[in-house]
Specification:
This protein starts with a strand and ends with a strand. It has about 120 residues and is mainly β. A four-stranded antiparallel β-sheet has the order 3-4-5-6, with no helix packed on it. Strands 7-8-9-10 form a four-stranded antiparallel β-sheet, with no helix packed on it.
Length: about 120
């Protein structure tokens, strides 16, 4: 967070989970969840709240090398009324692969950490 009074950036939160450099992150459409990816060939989903970040799950070794990019889809299911959103996460790594995962959003609301449920699309 930037503090204009001292013309500097201040650390507000630290998320602990990755074992090395975090290269990318992206929020879901609501801002309540965050995906992060890194050098450790893992991507995580975090629930964001006033208390901090809750680990909702980690997907290890979906790539053979570092994951440099992750993106959470904000697309709407075509023709849906009211609008329904597609919960897809795409990752791109140093192994020249792009992976797409369909996320079960209901699994985020199960108690405890590590409850992420997903299907590999590609």
């Amino acid at each position: 967070m930037y503090d204009e009074n001292i013309d500097d950036w201040n650390l507000q939160y630290t998320i602990e989970g990755h074992q090395s450099t975090v290269w990318s992150l992206d929020f879901d459409r609501t801002g309540e969840f965050l995906v992060s990816s890194g050098e450790d060939k893992r991507w995580y989903v975090w629930r964001v709240s006033e208390q901090g970040f809750e680990n909702k799950g980690v997907v290890p070794d979906s790539h053979r090398r570092a994951i440099y990019s992750c993106s959470w889809s904000k697309a709407v299911v075509p023709g849906s009324s009211p609008a329904q959103y597609m919960d897809f996460i795409a990752t791109a790594g140093a192994d020249n692969m792009i992976c797409i995962f369909e996320i079960n959003r209901d699994s985020f609301f199960k108690p405890g950490s590590g409850t992420l449920e997903f299907n590999i699309i590609s």
